[in-house]
Every structure is written in structure tokens, then in C-alpha cells.
Amino acid sequence: MLLRPTLRLLAQQAYKPSIRFPDRSQHQQQQHSAGSELHPHPAAPPEIVKDFSHFQEVFSSGPHFHPEKLQSASGSASASSSGGGGGASSGAEVVEDVHDLPPRFWKTSSLLIEEDEMELIMSGGASSRA
Q: Rounded to two decimals, what is the model's pTM?
């Protein structure tokens, strides 16, 4: 069987896709070696930029919603000097889960799921009512 020369030449060359993807591992190594020092985002609030080392400590220490950890020494001094009118007392209890609150906060229609709704969720909508 004779092959045409063009088909034979094409068969010798390996297929080379026309699209190329960058090597992600090489990009990450360059990124980490270029600037390993952490710095605040350019659009970060001025409080974070001013005391970025404290922000890093708070961020790595645990629950980020604890009000005492969110206040820096300079921030708490300015809040107390300005009269700090408003909201919760400094001894307010902090809860980690909505179910630790009294039932009036978590026994609401938006948080309670009926059996029909749960069946729809678990089936991915396949057992929907007609």
C-alpha cells in the first residue's frame, strides 16, 4: 500500500496543541522567592495599614470575631476618648455558634428546615413537588 508523501510527513510529526498553559508551580516559586515579606493590601483600611503586625497576630491567633482581639491598644484608647457611644458593653458574652444563643434567636423560620425541604436539598432537587 502506497502512502502519499504528505500523509507520511504529517504522521511523523507529533501533534502540538496550539494553546499553552503557564507552569503554575514555577510561577508560585517565583512569587514566594520575590517577596516573602507580608504587607497590607493597597486598599486596606488605614487602621490595618498603620498597625499591620498587630493585625497579623490577631489573624493568626484564632476567632476573628472576638471584640477584644479586634481592638488594638491605640484603637481602644481612641474609642474610649471619643466617648464611644453606642452598642454592646465591654463585658458582653461572645458565642461561637448560633445554637449557643437563646432559642428565640435560632428557632426562626429562616433557620428551621422542614422535612420536605431537607429531602429536596439532599436529592439535589430531583424529588421536587409537581
A: 0.27
Q: What is the per-residue pLDDT across 97-128, written as a single tens digit (0 to 9) for each?
A: 877 888 888 788 877 888 888 888 888 877 76
* C-alpha cell of residue 74: 491605640
> Position 57: which residue type?
E
Q: For the chain, how big is the Rg over CA atoms in Å?
A: 30
Q: SS3 helix, strand, coil % of the chain, rounded to 5?
A: 50, 0, 50
d(C-alpha 36, C-alpha 29), whole Å: 11
Residue 113 neighbours by CB under 8 Å, 6+ apart: 121
| Residue in this structure with the C-alpha cell 445554637, named with its chain if needed | 99
Nearest CA to 53 out of 72, 35, 36, 67 is that of 72
Using CA atoms, how far apart are residues 76 and 80, in angstroms rounded to an integer?
6
Q: Which residues neighbour 72 within 8 Å (Cβ) at sequence distance 6 or greater?
A: 47, 51, 54
Amino acid at 3: L
